[in-house]
Design goal:
Domain Beta-hexosaminidase bacterial type N-terminal: 26-150
GO molecular function, one term: beta-N-acetylhexosaminidase activity
Number of helices: 17
Distance between the termini: 34 Å
Number of strands: 30
Bound molecules: acetamide
CATH topology of the largest domain: TIM Barrel
Enzyme class: hydrolase
Strand content: 15-25%
Strand order of the largest sheet: 8-9-16-19-20-21-22-23
Active site: 343
Structural class: alpha/beta
Keywords: Glycosidase, Hydrolase, Signal
CATH class of the largest domain: Alpha Beta
Largest sheet: 8 strands, parallel, barrel
Length: 636
């Protein structure tokens, strides 16, 4: 280990060095095409900013604000540059010929021209910001290039569950900023749950007076080891929700609200028990919990899972839901309203004389058809108001509502079936890594999660268009989404840790053509720069383990350990004496050799510490040179 290390190799690679050698110029998601040209554009104080777009000064202001932070000076804005004046031009001329949300960027030594309109021009500005290297002596040198870019999917979404835990508007806005930066255009806001109703509804004040408060939550993983009795509460006023819609729209993000029905409705039922088949029935708490049994009256649920108490399909319930949805539609102008539809147990409907009579009267052969009747009734109402519904894939059961879009979460089967029935589909299969509440590594250092395994590489590997579909059916796959359920996510920092870098991988599979996917370039060239940016901005993220470290045991006698920091500017510390690495371990500065004697093994343990102090989990690689196997029972 006694080696003089050069501190500047491997670890401290500047953002611009990455950008220069990176075929994607540091842009996430990777553009459709990037063609290098000759020369460079040198941005300095003499450069002017020219607005010839149809979008007012919004985009130039955005770019200029960024240039101030990057260069330390603002560019002078003008409509008409002098001939031969170095300029950044934002224009909509020719934008009508571009695909929806598309843009081009042309960099020559004289000009940078960003072409697009609306979302397209906004995305051109995001890409321009991402490809801009750091300044050197008050100049920013940008390589000449032609970029042509547009999205693979029109729906690029992410869902945030605010029912299990409530997150303030300030956080929602901070989150939306990052979605926009990565060209994600849909924020699916899961507003109602068994554990909390989070949106003010003026006609039904008890929804938030009662439904937005639960009096406790299990501690640790389900079924928990106790029930802490601190209330969890919070809701958005209609004005706050409107402000989120306005803020998102400024960044070309559509907010799709979700109002869950007929299941996951305990909070609504606790507020208005007549929405249940059995208004007088007490709440049943799962017998797996430490406080199992029945509780007097209806409850906002304090534990996780699926609950039998669901909406009764009565005229009163439909009136309630229509009134609620009227207020929802007045807040959210989105074409789509998500109506849930998942995990609705049929137990109460089976036991209810009212439901059984209704089924006879309507000629419905089972409770799945009753669920379909429920969804179709709501769909008809929404369609009559000019809106369309999205539902989780259970809405296929008992017959799909005629115009519904299906969100496929239980694998891809629901999405495949829906596309075959000529229905639009959003792919969000938990089994393919799109459930970003799942854990990001198998390390015991991971925080408490719901389980599962969804490292960002798994999302990156996913193609939302199933191969079994015909060319015609594939057109119904409108996009892809990642879901952040928050049973085990109480804090905004933890929400961010779950979201990043996985949302960056999502952005790439949602936007970039399949043939542009390149995990090595993504992980090793672009991601480190983007994570360093998040680090600097005070946005939490999951710090990846060192690039180049095997997560599988290696066999042999001589090993060269050649690592790279997964976050630009981060440090890697390591041990080979089984100790847990920290700042007091060896600092990795350059590749080194480890020799393991015959019949022995070593364990390389590393930790990455980002400039802010954020840490990775400990990563371990066993280096084995024929060490005898330790039998499981020998450990006892
Ligand atoms: C879901 O995860 N229940 C849609």
């Amino acid at each position: 280990m006694k080696k003089v290390f050069s501190i500047f190799t491997a670890v401290l690679i500047s953002a611009s060095a990455f950008a220069q050698s990176d075929p994607n110029l540091g842009i996430i998601p990777a553009p459709v095409s990037v063609t290098k040209a000759n020369g460079t554009f040198i941005l300095d104080k003499t450069t002017v900013l020219v607005n010839q777009s149809i979008d007012g000064s919004k985009m130039t202001d955005l770019l200029n604000a960024f240039i101030v932070t990057k260069a330390g000076f603002a560019l002078r804005e003008t409509k008409t540059p002098q001939p031969n004046q170095k300029a950044i031009v934002l224009t909509s001329v020719g934008a009508d010929q571009l695909p929806a949300e598309g843009y081009t960027i042309k960099v020559t030594p004289k000009q940078i021209v960003l072409t697009g309109k609306g979302a397209g021009l906004f995305y051109a500005v995001q890409s321009a910001m991402q490809m801009m290297p750091d300044k050197v002596a008050d100049k920013i040198t940008i390589p000449a290039v032609n970029i042509n870019d547009y999205p693979r999917f029109s729906y690029r979404g992410t869902m945030l569950d605010v029912g299990r835990h409530f997150f303030p508007v300030s956080f929602i806005k901070k989150y939306i900023d990052q979605l926009a930066y990565y060209k994600i255009n849909t924020f699916h806001w899961h507003l109602t749950e068994d554990q909390g109703w989070r949106l003010e509804i003026k006609k039904y004040p008890k929804l938030t007076q009662i439904g937005s408060v639960r009096n406790g939550t299990i501690i640790g993983n389900y079924p928990g080891n106790g029930n802490y009795l601190t209330p969890v509460k919070g809701f958005y006023t209609q004005d706050e929700a409107k402000e989120v819609v306005r803020y998102a729209a400024e960044k070309y993000i559509t907010v799709i609200p979700e109002i869950e029905l007929p299941g996951h409705a305990s909070a609504a039922i606790a507020s208005y028990p007549e929405l249940s088949c059995f208004p007088d029935r007490d709440t049943f708490i799962s017998d797996k919990t430490p406080w199992a049994g029945s509780r007097k009256g209806k409850q906002v649920q304090q534990t996780w899972g699926v609950f039998d108490d669901i909406f009764v399909p009565s005229a009163n319930t439909f009136t309630f839901l229509e009134n609620v949805l009227d207020e929802v539609m007045a807040i959210f102008p989105s074409k789509y309203i998500h109506i849930g539809g998942d995990e609705a147990p049929k137990t109460y409907w089976k036991e209810s004389a009212f439901c059984q009579n209704l089924m006879k009267e309507k000629g419905l052969k089972d409770e799945h058809e009753l669920q379909s009747y429920f969804i179709q009734t709501i769909e008809k109402y929404m369609n009559s108001k000019g809106r369309s519904i999205i539902g989780w894939d259970e809405i296929l059961e008992g017959g799909l509502a005629p115009n519904a879009t299906v969100m496929s979460w239980r694998g891809e089967d629901g999405g495949i079936a829906a596309a075959q029935q000529k229905h639009d589909v959003i792919m969000t299969p938990g089994s393919m890594g799109l459930y970003i509440d799942h854990k990001q590594s198998n390390s015991p250092d991971e925080p408490v999660t719901i389980g599962g395994f969804a490292p960002y590489q798994k999302i990156y590997a996913y193609d939302p268009v199933p191969k079994v579909l015909t060319a015609e059916e594939r057109k119904y796959i409108k996009g892809v989404q990642a879901n952040l359920w928050t049973e085990y996510i109480k804090t905004t920092a933890k929400a961010e840790n779950h979201a990043f870098p996985r949302l960056l991988a999502l952005a790439e599979i949602a936007w970039s053509p399949v043939e542009r996917k390149d995990l090595k370039n993504f992980s090793e060239q672009r991601l480190p720069v983007h994570l360093a940016r998040l680090d600097k901005m005070g946005i939490n993220f999951w710090v990846p383990t060192p690039i180049g470290q095997s997560d599988k045991p290696l066999t042999g006698g001589d090993f060269t350990i050649d690592l790279k920091a997964p976050v630009t500017g981060a440090k890697i510390y390591y041990t080979i004496d089984l100790a847990r690495p920290s700042e007091s371990a060896f600092l990795y500065t350059a590749p080194f050799k480890i020799t393991v004697p015959q019949g022995e093994k070593r364990v390389l343990k590393t930790i990455v510490i980002a400039p802010s102090g954020r840490r990775s989990v400990t990563a371990e690689t066993v280096l084995n040179n024929g060490a005898p196997e330790v039998k499981a029972d020998a450990k006892k």
